[in-house]
Amino acid sequence: MMMAENDSSPSSSEKLNPKKNVHRFLGGGQVADILLWKRRNVSISIVAGATAFWWLFDRAGYSFLSFVANVLLLLVSILFFWAKSATLLNRPLPPLPDLKLSEDQVAQAAESTRLYINDVLAIAHDLTIKKDVKVFLEVFIGLWIVSYIGSFFSFPTVVYVGIIISFTIPALYEKYQDRVDERLSATQNVVVKQYRNVHGAVLSRIPSSARKEKKTQ
Question: Contact, 68 vs 79, CB < 8 A?
């Protein structure tokens, strides 16, 4: 009985601990650890890399194709001359890993791609076959927001802002979750109160006879 109580206590504490809900909401894996800065070196590297790419493509005016070609040209040149000099000077060759994809890596990538494609096809099915108005409105509003934002910012800037938000909002919310929930609850109460006031004011302007007719209908 004591062991059963000990086994059940961590699960109940996890349910009562709000700090762990953010990590669970983000998937609870390595991605969640990176977004919440639990693997600080990886998080810093991603943010620094995103900043460098945004500066190159948006500020410096590089195109993606020219950047990739220049990087590959520099890498191939370094490896070629390194291998040549190593052969002439009896030095070890460049320490290159075994550059090939395993079957497991290909299968995992294919499975992830299949899941995303099926999600898109399910949305298309709900729009065309089921004629789901809710899904249509969600897709319409989402695409309109993307189009509206894209008219003000370039694609690299939108991607960069999305990365920065992904690395700041979840971490800040996890750190100040109690304060944020308290403010959100107070804001929700104010909004509900104002809505009730406006709703009551609108109903008070409707003649009582008209409201009785609506009720009888």
Answer: no
Find the helix packing angle between 177-205 and 155-175, rounded to 10°: 100
Return the pLDDT at 140.
87
Q: Sort 146 into a burial class: Cβ within 10 Å, 0-12 / 13-18 / 19+.
A: exposed
Cβ atoms of 43 and 37 within 8 Å: the answer is yes
Alpha carbons within 13 angstroms on the beta-carbon side of residue 16 total 6
The structure tokens 């099915």 sit at 125
pLDDT digits (tens, 9 = 90+) for 141-161: 888 988 888 888 888 888 899
Q: Which residue has the tokens 């096809």?
A: 121
Read off the amino acid at residue 106.
Answer: V
Q: Give residue 41's pLDDT.
A: 92
Q: Reduce the DSSP state of residue 58 to 3 states and report it.
A: helix
Q: What is the pLDDT of residue 65?
A: 84
79-106 mean pLDDT:
78
- Per-residue model confidence as pLDDT tens digits over 109-128: 888 888 889 888 888 887 77
pTM of the model: 0.57
Helices (H), the chain: 2-16, 19-25, 30-35, 40-54, 64-88, 103-128, 133-150, 155-175, 177-205, 208-216
Handedness of CA 78, 84, 89, 94 (dihedral sign): positive
Question: Which candidate, 146, 164, 143, places its Cα nearest to that of 155?
Answer: 146
What are the structure tokens assigned to 12, written together?
């109940």
